[in-house]
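quick one
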Amino acid sequence: MAAETDWFDQGLSHIWLPYAQMKTAVRPEIAISAKGAHIRLADGRTLVDGIGSWWTAVHGYNHPGIVQAMRAQLERMPHIMLGGLAHEPAYRLATRLAAMTPQTLSKTFFTESGSVAVEVAMKIAVQYWRNLGVTGRSKFVSFKGGYHGDTFATMAVCDPEEGMHTLFADALPKHYTADLPTDEASLSALSDILSARKDVAALIVEPLLQGAGGMLIHNEDTLREMRALCDRHNILLIFDEIFTGFGRTGAMFAADRAGVCPDIMTLGKALTGGSCPLAATIATDEVYAAFHADDPHKALMHGPTYSGHALACAAANASLDLFKKEPRLKQVAAIERSLGDAFLPLRALQHVRDVRVIGAVGAVEMKHPFNIEQARAEFIKDGVFIRPIGKVIYLTPAYTIDEEDLRILTNAVIRRVEALATR
Ligand SMILES: *Cc1c(COP(=O)(O)O)cnc(C)c1O
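structure w/ pyridoxal-5'-phosphate:
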């Protein structure tokens, strides 16, 4: 390889990659630029992207609306700390998030990653009860199939059976894991937990769509049941919309589809349209009121160094502008139809367990495990970037993807699913 990629071979001995067994992982492809739904590789090939960089790049890569806003902010100042100083991008973004999120959600705390946004939501929930003078409420109820992050507090509310974090089970606080209340039996089981346990601060769920758990879908009624249960048992409800937020399920937020307002909502991933790390924890006026006091000990004691990063907030504001200027939710609806047309017939295949489509998410779950590294490599040979998780092959494309590129993606998935039958 040419000297200009020396950095790659040298760096490969020093970089520690996410979720990767470094010894056996397939060498990553070198991306030199990205535009819209396309990733350009160093060797001259172009891939159609089916994943959107872990579900973030909803406007496609390098959207000029975001790039220009970032450039303008960069020239003024990339960042200035929120402790004791204020800058326009974060304050504007907080105001806009209050206006666009459901009902009384209106107070935003900014962090740099989704996991930390969930940690902050958990801290708020625990301290909320303390501030109200209610002691002993520090546990959470979460759900099978759920994923809320990779840090210690968040690992403890992920699906405990799911492979990624079982190793750490001993090191994690114990909370309560329930089945999603999708029928009478699971609903009464959840109700029983909440009746029996007086130490629960909040219930946390990825509304409508559990992403990392394998693109598992439940319906709006399930969320309404949760809201009713939390009200009845006087427990806070946290919607982790880090994946579902910003149109992924077809509405701006999954909460909108259900007509349910959680007490706390977390956002991340698509918040900056895939351009910068930024996450948000948004509380209702009522939750916030428990912290708003003369007593300094009632303040929320959390403060990431880069909280409210100005460049990232400028990118997020630009991303919100794009949702106004361009017909994103219509694009999502069109993608949902195309994904349904392409994937639903695969249900008839013997070796396919299930096909799930919601908004700009299409997933095909196989009955049997398959070689994921090999599948990923085959996709690249086919000119697409697609990364199955577990037994699930899925697409989470940019909302701006055109029909032809989307067909290239769905055809590649169908080909791979069909090839897996003959193994
Ligand atoms: C990705 C994700 C997180 C974690 O976000 P990071 O930015 O990776 O820390 C939390 N919750 C959900 C639902 C997610 O999809």
